[in-house]
Amino acid sequence: DIQMTQSPSSLSASVGDRVTLTCRASQSISNYLSWYQQKPGKAPKLLIYAASTLQSGVPSRFSGSGSGTDFTLTISSLQPEDFATYSCQQSHSTPYTFGQGTQVAIK
Amino acid sequence: QLQLQESGPGLVKPSETLSLTCSVSGDSFNDNDYYWGWIRQPPGKALEWIGNIHYGGTTFYNSSLRSRVSISLDPSQNHFSLKLSSVTAADTAVYYCARFVRRVGARHFDSWGQGTLVTVSS
B102: which chain A residues are within 8 Å (Cβ-Cβ)? Predict the structure, then answer.
């Protein structure tokens, strides 16, 4: 199985900060990498797919990059509604696997 | 607009079979680019993919659950279902159904149900 490792596991940031989250795959997954945002008690919401394609309706302050094994999710200017947990997921091969998540909290 | 809604018992006894249904509205199953999947999340833990099904009948299961899991689809009822047998406390989780997009250059879960908590306990 492909292991997805996210770092950091949590971070504290202020509104307006630029935030970068990292996801690493245990083997190459090309660009079959998605990012999801999840708030407490809610379902995950797709933000980015194919490593860098913004899902329709998602604000442009979110961006993704990377290919192969190393990927990043960047929030250019953190907004109050962005405080949540972010998870990456690979769809290169089954079993599809998720990272453990990065919790973004208010500083 | 696509909507997915999970339903089923919130409490299942150990060794019994967990059965959930996902009702789909706003879309149809007979689109070759879509699969329909189940994902679960134990309390405080990461998401875990359970399996996907295509309207043509093709299924993909997580190897860690393959001996216990079955996913089926009923286009006439616009729903798909999950069965997980011989459950233990480790199967306690929020279970989500979701649509999986699979086309050239894109594979991702783009729409999710709200999730349903299933507790395994006697």
Answer: 91
